[in-house]
């Protein structure tokens, strides 16, 4: 992301917070030169994960769901005989 110095001044704290949260550097253009604001602390990939709510309803319903239509088999390297 590249910003002008004016945009940086208008949103300084929110831009700094975003760099700290995401670990993504911000480029600032000033007098035809490029400056970079970056965090020396590398954000973990786990810290940047977004929460997803994919189960609608009661999570206990998954236990009793018929998964036979979703079953793709064990694949050629794993068959039922090798699991015995």
What order do the helices and strands come in, and which of them pair?
Blueprint: E1 2-4, H1 5-10, H2 12-22, E2 26-30, E3 33-37
| Secondary structure: number of strands | 3
Largest pleated sheet: 3 strands, mixed
Decide which structural class fits the backbone. Answer: alpha+beta
Number of helices: 2
Whole-number mean pLDDT: 80
**Can you tell me the CATH architecture of the domain at 1-43?**
3-Layer(aba) Sandwich
Q: End-to-end distance, in Å?
A: 55 Å
CATH class of the domain at 1-43: Alpha Beta
Unreliable runs: none
Provide a descriptive summary of the structure in words.
By secondary structure, the protein is an alpha+beta fold. It has a domain at 1-43: 3-Layer(aba) Sandwich (YefM-like fold), CATH 3.40.1620. It contains 2 helices and 3 strands. The protein has a 3-stranded mixed beta sheet with strand order 1-2-3. The longest helix has 11 residues, at 12-22. It is elongated and about 65 Å long.
Defining traits:
84 residues, alpha+beta, YefM-like fold, three-stranded mixed β-sheet, 2 helices, 15% strand, elongated
